[in-house]
Structure formats: structure tokens, C-alpha cells
User: Which sequence fits this backbone?
């Protein structure tokens, strides 16, 4: 059995945007909604369908309207795994901008006439496969707080980010429903069979939806395209980093050569220190004049 990787936006939509029970199970576990606060009904603004595949390639935010058992509603946005490009600070900066844009846009669009009675709380969930926060926990919560009292006086928008690389539990340590969902999202593409710890209907449905052998040709082609696109991006980043590193090494050797020449060292000694040929040392020396 070959399973799709939920860190891929299309796979995430296929798994969590097809079966309402799967998505409700994940949301209740993720936010620890229990009792009357448990979500009982959801509506995806753009549910998964073959017609939406081309859009998912470029727009990967999932917008959900949810209602709990008390009849209270909220909006939940989920951004499948954000591809890590550049330094952690760059990833954080890009994720922060995206999350603020999507969440504030969703909040504002609820009422065109600024009728605040119709505004619902917005939860934003963003996945990232790298470490961008100092917290040791793999889930971090970010809210609008009073800078003096640290109280959350304005609670209409809340951000939660998942750093998947910080989730390191193995199968024997999965004790909660949330543990099992995190393990599924991070590792299912590496599995061949559904582990015995996954016993509920919602988990079984999730594994069934993740099975690539049950996807049609259009879905498989779109998925493979996105996987290759992400791989190309990753290779481009690695190549750029490699070139930058090589350039840094060359610059460092140049400095060593120039300093060594100032100290009166001969070419043979400098060659032993840097691994550069006499011709290259001579070029550096003449280029600095």
C-alpha cells in the first residue's frame, strides 16, 4: 500500500476535505474541543472535488465554517504544510504575513456593513516542517494580548502553528487522538499498512482516502506534479546554499592567502595551508594589487 503525504496540499485536501467525520475528528482533537464545545457540524467553503484540483495547486488554504453542540459558530482556516524556504526567520516572516492576511481577510468578509453581531471568531492553523519558534512544544498558540497585563482581552482571532519536525513520538507512544493525527500527517506516506493503534472509523477513512491506489488518474497526476514541483524547489534551495557556501570558502581562502603573503610566507607554504595551486595563489596576489 502506498499512501499520499498530507504535507502536500492536494493530499491534505483529499483526506480532510472529503470526509466530514475525518475533519471534525481532527479539529476537536487539535483544539481539545470537548462536551458542548465539541464541533458537530462543518461546512467547507470550497470542498474537495476534481474540479478544484487545479485551484488547490495554487491556493492551499482550507476555509471551514464550524458549529459546536451549543449552536455557536466559528471559522477555522488550515494552511497545509508551508514549504520551508530559506532561514527560519525568512520562513517565519512569510508564514506570519500569510496567516495575518488570510485570518484578517476571513474575519472582515463576514460582514460587508460592519455588523459586528455577525462576526465569528477565526482560528488559523498553519503547518510548517521546520523549527521557527523558540518553544519546545510542537504546537504554539499566538493571540492578541495586552502588552502590560498579558491578558487576552481581544480574542476574536487566534493563531496556532504546528512545527512537525518537533513531533517525535513513535507508534508506541501515541496516547491521544491528537498524537495519532500528528503521527498520521507526518509519517503516513512512509507506511505500508495502517498500524493497529488506528481503530476508529475516522482514522480508517483517513487511511483509505490517503491510499494513492484508490485515486483516479487526474488526482495522481496532479499529486505527482506537486511533489516534483516541491522537489525542484528544494533542490534549487540546496544548490543555492551550496554555491553560497562554496563562494564563502573561496573568499575565506583568499583572505588567508593575502594575510599569509603579508606575513612573508612563500607560495609552497601557502599552498600547504589552503590547498590552492601556485597559479591560483599568484592570481590572488596580482588581483589584489
Assistant:
Amino acid at each position: 500500500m502506498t499512501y499520499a503525504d498530507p504535507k502536500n496540499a492536494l493530499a491534505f485536501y483529499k483526506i480532510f476535505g472529503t470526509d466530514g467525520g475525518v475533519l471534525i475528528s481532527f479539529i476537536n482533537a487539535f483544539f481539545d474541543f470537548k462536551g458542548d464545545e465539541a464541533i458537530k457540524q462543518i461546512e467547507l467553503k470550497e470542498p474537495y472535488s476534481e474540479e478544484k484540483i487545479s485551484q488547490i495547486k495554487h491556493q492551499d488554504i482550507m476555509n471551514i465554517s464550524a458549529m459546536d453542540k451549543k449552536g455557536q459558530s466559528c471559522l477555522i482556516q488550515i494552511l497545509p504544510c508551508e514549504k520551508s524556504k530559506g532561514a527560519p526567520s525568512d520562513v517565519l516572516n512569510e508564514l506570519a504575513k500569510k496567516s495575518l492576511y488570510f485570518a484578517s481577510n476571513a474575519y472582515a468578509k463576514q460582514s460587508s456593513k460592519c455588523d459586528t453581531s455577525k462576526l465569528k471568531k477565526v482560528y488559523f492553523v498553519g503547518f510548517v516542517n521546520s523549527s521557527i519558534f523558540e518553544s519546545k512544544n510542537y504546537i504554539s498558540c499566538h493571540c492578541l494580548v495586552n502588552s502590560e497585563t498579558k491578558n487576552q482581552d481581544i480574542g476574536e482571532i487566534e493563531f496556532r502553528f504546528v512545527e512537525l519536525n518537533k513531533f517525535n513520538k513513535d507508534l508506541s507512544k501515541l496516547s491521544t487522538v491528537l498524537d495519532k493525527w500528528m503521527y498520521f500527517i507526518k509519517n503516513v506516506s512512509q507506511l505500508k499498512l495502517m498500524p493497529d493503534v488506528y481503530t476508529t472509523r475516522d482514522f480508517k477513512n483517513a487511511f483509505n482516502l490517503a491510499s494513492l491506489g484508490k485515486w483516479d488518474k487526474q488526482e495522481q497526476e496532479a499529486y505527482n506534479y506537486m511533489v516534483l514541483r516541491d522537489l525542484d524547489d528544494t533542490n534549487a534551495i540546496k544548490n543555492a546554499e551550496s554555491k553560497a557556501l562554496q563562494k564563502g570558502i573561496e573568499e575565506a581562502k583568499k583572505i588567508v592567502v593575502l594575510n599569509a603573503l603579508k606575513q612573508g610566507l612563500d607560495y609552497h607554504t601557502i599552498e600547504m595551508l589552503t590547498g590552492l595551486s601556485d597559479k591560483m595563489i599568484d592570481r590572488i596576489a596580482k588581483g589584489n594589487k
In short: The radius of gyration is 25 Å. Strands lie at 39-44, 62-68, 73-82, 121-128, 139-144, 154-163. The mean pLDDT is 84.
